[in-house]
Amino acid sequence: MMEENVMELVDKGLMLPLMEEFYTIQGEGFHKGTAAYFIRVGGCDVGCHWCDVKESWNAETHPPTAIDSIIANAKKYSDTIVITGGEPLTWDMAPLTQGLKKEGMKTHIETSGAYPLTGVWDWICLSPKKNKLPVGDIAKKADELKVIVYNKHDFIFAEEQAAEVGENCILYLQPEWSVRDKMVPLIVDYVMKNPKWKVSLQTHKYLNIP
């Protein structure tokens, strides 16, 4: 268990359960193919059965790390920072993002929106999940909507979520990796019939990079 004073700092967003941080190429969505520094924060109770980072779910298995240290590491690599998880909005993102912005970095988030939006963001990628829907006004603030397609019903879910976002939000359908061979043809056909959508692929997996 975390010590009480450490827990207080985590609750305030001054420390975060850091799972990993790495410099790589963004593989998905609008910014695919561009270099970015990823900060993966532990803790998620959304519980997607197909999640490929289930080791991120239990926050207590990831060391509480001071955000000053996280910011200092990020500065060494890139001016574009992607904060992901887990579910990063489990925690208060204001201190971390304010610190990153103070250093002149662009802040991106990848989130299910299952918790209230905190932080200062240059780009919000909303990837909603059926078992814990977005809360608050994040849908209206999202720059891109990325719906993971695991089965045919996910197309219905995607349209429901698209009805919630702003008119300038970019809409993506992305096959869940384990069923990509089955779902890619369906997604391609759907996008051709509904061209407001775009196809997103996990290109980093094809490139065999983190």
TrEMBL record:
Which residues are listed for [4Fe-4S] cluster binding in this entry?
A: C44, C48, C51
- What EC number(s) does this enzyme carry? 4.3.99.3
User: Which top EC class is named for this enzyme in its record?
Assistant: lyase
Check the record and name the InterPro entries matching this protein: 7-CO-7-deazaguanine_synth-like, Aldolase_TIM, rSAM, rSAM_sf
The note describing how and how many cofactors are bound reads: Binds 1 [4Fe-4S] cluster. The cluster is coordinated with 3 cysteines and an exchangeable S-adenosyl-L-methionine.
Pfam families (UniProt xref): Radical_SAM (PF04055)
The record's listing under PROSITE patterns reads: RADICAL_SAM
Required co-factor? Answer: [4Fe-4S] cluster; S-adenosyl-L-methionine; Mg(2+)
Which terms in the Gene Ontology molecular function aspect does this entry carry?
A: 4 iron, 4 sulfur cluster binding; carbon-nitrogen lyase activity; magnesium ion binding; S-adenosyl-L-methionine binding
- Annotated pathway, please? Purine metabolism; 7-cyano-7-deazaguanine biosynthesis
Q: Which UniProt keywords apply?
A: 4Fe-4S, Iron, Iron-sulfur, Lyase, Magnesium, Metal-binding, Queuosine biosynthesis, S-adenosyl-L-methionine
Q: Which residues bind S-adenosyl-L-methionine?
A: W50, C51, D52, G86, S127, P128, K129
Sites where the protein binds substrate? I25, Q26, G27, R40, T84, P210
Q: Please report the stretch or stretches of sequence annotated as the Radical SAM core domain.
A: 31-210
* GO terms for biological process, alphabetical: tRNA queuosine(34) biosynthetic process
Chemical reaction(s) catalysed? 6-carboxy-5,6,7,8-tetrahydropterin + H(+) = 7-carboxy-7-carbaguanine + NH4(+)
Q: Record keywords: Hydrolase included? A: no
Subunit structure of this chain's protein: Homodimer.
Main function: Catalyzes the complex heterocyclic radical-mediated conversion of 6-carboxy-5,6,7,8-tetrahydropterin (CPH4) to 7-carboxy-7-deazaguanine (CDG), a step common to the biosynthetic pathways of all 7-deazapurine-containing compounds.
Q: What's this protein's family per the entry?
A: Belongs to the radical SAM superfamily. 7-carboxy-7-deazaguanine synthase family.
Q: Name it.
A: 7-carboxy-7-deazaguanine synthase
- Its gene name is queE
